[in-house]
Amino acid sequence: MSEPISLLEGLASTRAIRRYTDEPIPTSDLNRMLFAATRAPSGSNRQPYRFLVLRDGPGARAAKELLGATFREMWGAKRGSDGYDRGSGARDDSPKARMAWAMDTFVDRFERTSVVVLACLVHWRGGDPTEGASIYPACQNLLLAARGLGYGGVMTVWHKPVEAELKSMLAIPDEVSVAAVIPLGIPAGSHGPVRRRPLAASVFEDRWGESAPWAHDPAGTGHTSWRGGEPRG
Amino acid sequence: MSEPISLLEGLASTRAIRRYTDEPIPTSDLNRMLFAATRAPSGSNRQPYRFLVLRDGPGARAAKELLGATFREMWGAKRGSDGYDRGSGARDDSPKARMAWAMDTFVDRFERTSVVVLACLVHWRGGDPTEGASIYPACQNLLLAARGLGYGGVMTVWHKPVEAELKSMLAIPDEVSVAAVIPLGIPAGSHGPVRRRPLAASVFEDRWGESAPWAHDPAGTGHTSWRGGEPRG
């Protein structure tokens, strides 16, 4: 195996991966990823996160079918409403068309995804949005560890319309919610860089809307399209 | 500088740091941390996260005073209600007493914290808890990047009782919420290992409550106290 990737390089280069080969993930690597996930912080170190791993058991097969069907519906609706086939999306080589193609592949092949992890949250406050501080850092650790071991994945919340059915299928208790669905696999094909708004558009100093004077992107950083001034709120 | 830490080692060894030296953080390092933070994923890559950095400007001084006073009140109440001075907490060398001492130091010195980052979320759904998936991964990236550069921090939500006052003080718009307050600094003193429940208590396979047979902690992993069977829900 080559030199391990450094922490800072890993943070800068982990991106959503939606296309995977059909190869399985060895459980020893899954163990390493989930160990990393559970090192994340949580409020008062309560550790209310639980990870339900779906591979090829009866629960996994049923849940992957339910999720696959739902994701295809969600993507079909979004594809239309967000105009993925209009404008630059009509050109095969545009980022929009590439994204649409990756999404098609993702939802069409969902049932074949090697591993799907349900990131579950045991509630202790009644739906306070800050509860997310005790589950999503662990999800991010999982995705970063996947990157560190040569895998890729993506965090989705498209299970929401069928969450009740999913929970009943897998015996997930009432007081637990499924905070995210995270498919994981060996990346297939090539993947572009991480693209974000310029740093000065997201980092303020001392007062809302005042870009930090020292905030700048390293040379070669990929940007999403961004209208200057827009994020002043 | 020594060999950079690897991604997997960084994920496993980043812990909450609440005691800092008085030294400032160079803006070049802050820039690297915030760059890493903003590489995190968000729903549809909308990037609704904004980071408001508080150092030593007028906004920072006022906000640190407000937060310091609030944190001291919150900790005073928690110290009593959670019995930090009872049971093992009465012994100076217990983990409970060490935690209480670290918290005392944290809240007493809060105004002197070199940098306090407000992780802000521009809402696009009305308070849906899954919105946290678009801010807390970025917060975790920030804490991991701090670790990678020799700094430490902690994610807190103790600003909630004074969020309205804090927002008005810093001109944060109505449609934005402060999802977390993240103090950062150079770690002072020694810090123990990351302690979590055994992995098999948090990782299930195919059905809720069934520990993944392959889930195990590497030798030497620190554990929090845990009652077997408790997390079955």
What does the model show?
- Two copies of one chain form a homodimer.
- With 233 residues, chain A is an alpha+beta fold.
- Chain A has two domains: 7-185, 3-Layer(aba) Sandwich (NADH Oxidase); 194-233, no CATH class.
- Helix content of chain A is 33%, strand content 14%.
- Chain A is built from six helices and seven strands.
- Chain A has helices at 7-13, 27-37, 58-81, 95-108, 136-148, 163-169; strands at 49-54, 115-122, 152-153, 176-185, 195-196, 203-205, 222-223.
- Chain A has a four-stranded antiparallel beta sheet with strand order 1-2-4-3.
- In chain A, α2 (27-37) packs across α5 (136-148) and α3 packs antiparallel against α4 (95-108).
- Chain A is globular, with a radius of gyration of 19 Å.
- Residues 227-233 of chain A have low confidence and may be disordered.
- Chains A and B meet through α1, α2, β1, α3 and α5 of A and α1, α2, β1, α3 and α5 of B.
- β6 of chain A pairs parallel with β1 of chain B, so a sheet runs across the interface.
